[in-house]
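User: quick one, sequence for these tokens?
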């Protein structure tokens, strides 16, 4: 991307006493981009989000929001941040319009522009029908919409959303996802979520944190590539010796699942399906099954985490 990023963070580290919770983490987010931020519990995800939103100072590192240093120019930088924590900061005894008016004042929106700003987020977040209702009387889905509305009322450059669809029903989740897509057209969005399919649907890039370190940082397309099959399941009524199967070009290893069924692992760029089919016919192996074994996003996520954990244990 040619435009300057709206958020950059470099070498972020944070200690809690002697415990290093976040270790030398970097972020870059451009306008119109949704960055998915994933990690298991205790990985340093929440600490990172708190630092990026200006709610927690790093021990080391630098954060720049729309050109302003979050540490040395905190007020100017924070004016360009919208933040929705996992528990939305709502005053439930206020009506939606009263609460958003309060948020507009907190964000120093001039009184002459306040009404227009409130009306814009009410319409954008689908709150028109509940404008005058008390927040405490709204469903969780509508309360989440109000939380998002307070995060974008001042049109910040960067919007940080922590588990925005947590606890919602399927219809509410679909509506909030559509709202996030809409927000991303005008802002940078950092989305923290435990719902892995949500990453595929909403995010342009993904960063995965584990033990305080970034263990994956690339496009969603690259993450999806890791889901592509690199193994086949094959069933042969007249199965040959494993040594004969191993002679097929591209095969790296074979797991014998039963007398007649095998898992064949191969190099990603050398799928042996056609060669196996031809060999099965010519050698009369009586082929009954030849299917690709696909990996879910959850499988890929766990594999990345497990590989990094094993590497860390070897290093220590």
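Assistant:
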């Amino acid at each position: 991307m040619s435009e300057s990023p709206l958020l950059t963070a470099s070498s972020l580290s944070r200690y809690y006493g002697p415990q290093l919770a976040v270790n030398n983490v970097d972020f870059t987010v451009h306008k119109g981009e949704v960055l998915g931020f994933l990690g298991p519990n205790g990985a340093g995800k929440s600490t990172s989000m708190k630092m990026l939103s200006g709610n927690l100072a790093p021990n080391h590192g630098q954060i720049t929001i729309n050109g302003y240093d979050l540490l040395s120019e905190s007020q100017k930088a924070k004016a360009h941040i919208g933040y929705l924590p996992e528990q939305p900061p709502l005053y439930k005894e206020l009506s939606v319009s009263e609460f958003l008016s309060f948020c507009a004042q907190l964000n120093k929106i001039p009184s002459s522009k306040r009404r227009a700003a409130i009306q814009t987020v009410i319409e954008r977040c689908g709150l028109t029908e509940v404008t005058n209702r008390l927040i405490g009387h709204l469903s969780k889905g509508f309360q989440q919409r109000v939380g998002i509305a307070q995060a974008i009322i001042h049109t910040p450059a960067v919007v940080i959303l922590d588990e925005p669809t947590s606890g919602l029903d399927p219809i509410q989740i679909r509506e909030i996802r559509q709202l996030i897509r809409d927000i991303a057209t005008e802002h940078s969005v950092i989305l923290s979520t435990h719902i892995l399919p949500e990453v595929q649907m909403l995010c342009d890039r993904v960063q995965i944190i584990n033990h305080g370190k970034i263990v994956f940082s690339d496009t969603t397309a690259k993450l999806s590539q890791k889901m592509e099959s690199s193994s086949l399941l094959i069933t042969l009524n007249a199965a040959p010796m494993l040594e004969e199967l191993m002679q097929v070009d591209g095969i790296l290893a074979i797991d014998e699942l039963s007398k007649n069924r095998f898992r064949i692992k191969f190099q990603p760029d050398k799928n042996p399906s056609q060669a196996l089919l031809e060999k099965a016919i010519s050698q009369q192996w009586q082929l009954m099954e030849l299917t690709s074994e696909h990996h879910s996003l959850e499988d890929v996520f766990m594999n990345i985490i497990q590989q990094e954990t094993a590497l860390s244990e070897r290093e220590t």
